[in-house]
Specification:
By secondary structure, the protein is mainly beta. Helix content is 0%, strand content 57%. The chain has strands at residues 3-7, 10-13, 18-25, 33-39, 46-51, 57-59, 67-72, 77-82, 91-101, 104-109, 113-118. The strands form two sheets. Strands 2, 4, 5, 6, 9, 10 and 11 form a seven-stranded mixed beta sheet that branches. The radius of gyration is 14 Å and the shape is globular.
Length: 119
């Protein structure tokens, strides 16, 4: 059974840093594209950062230069290093695992972790 468990969220002051982790189990982790999404109150869920199975990355414009996504296939874990945090980064952050190959599509989500940035 696939499971994604996020950790590392919390309360931080503006300008501070946090590192989110997402531990995956029950999936062939190295074959999955991994992503971090966030959802602020009253807003739609948005992609923050993604990393492909091959290690290519992309970021939302709002976090470029501040956030870094990485993965450790040996630990089945994806990370999001968040620096220079701003109050507008406040949201619930979700981990996503996506697989799409030969007409087989799978999507899994974690339960989310709250990130609150105070001004």
């Amino acid at each position: 059974q696939a499971q994604l468990v996020e950790s590392g969220g919390g309360l931080v002051q503006s300008g501070g840093s946090l590192r989110l982790s997402c531990a995956a189990s029950g999936i062939g982790f190295s074959f999955y594209h991994m992503g971090w999404y966030r959802q602020a109150p009253g807003k739609e869920r948005e992609l923050v950062a993604a990393i492909t199975s091959g290690g290519s990355t992309n970021y939302a414009d709002s976090v470029k230069g501040r956030f870094t996504i990485s993965r450790d296939n040996a630990k089945n874990t994806v990370y999001l290093q968040m620096n220079s945090l701003k109050p507008e980064d406040t949201a619930v952050y979700y981990c996503n695992a996506h697989y799409n190959h030969n007409d087989i599509r799978r999507d899994y989500w974690g339960q989310g972790t709250q990130v609150t940035v105070s001004s």
